[in-house]
Amino acid sequence: MARVRFHALFLACFVLLAAVQRSTQDIVAHTCKECANPVLPFNFCVKTLSSDPRSRTADLVGLGVIAIEHLKDSVKRANLYAAGLLKKKVWDPYTASCLKDCVELYTDAVDDIPDIEAEYKGKSYADAQTHLSAIEDSSITCETQFKEKKPITSQNLEATQSASLALAIINLIPK
């Protein structure tokens, strides 16, 4: 009899765990379905949010925190990459000038992240959206100023999509 109870308890725990795991996957999938747009592909959203273990227990606001932290990492990587390319001094003057602009744009973006985090935490969503839009614009500006040689396209795309994800999540939060 004790063995039957153990198996029943084990089965109940397994079903409960599966339901919890499915519900957390559902919030990520549902959020990403709502956020997807031409700049922000569904798969990028799911991959980004699901890559953080906190997404398993996060609500919508928690997913916004994850998105902003991902953006922080993304703009730091883009900034370091652009600065590293600029140091190589193998670029024609125009491309070097574009890289210098990108470093300045991404340095500003990195500097804005603490403000975004504070605004988000303080529920000043409109202010956070203003800063996030500026970062999204900066990554697009960095990309579009290059002519033929586009040495940081993947970093710019990552930053653009990351900013778009954070913006889209904020738009879903009931005000």
From TrEMBL:
Designated name of the protein: Uncharacterized protein
Originating organism: Melastoma candidum
Organism phylogeny: Eukaryota, Viridiplantae, Streptophyta, Embryophyta, Tracheophyta
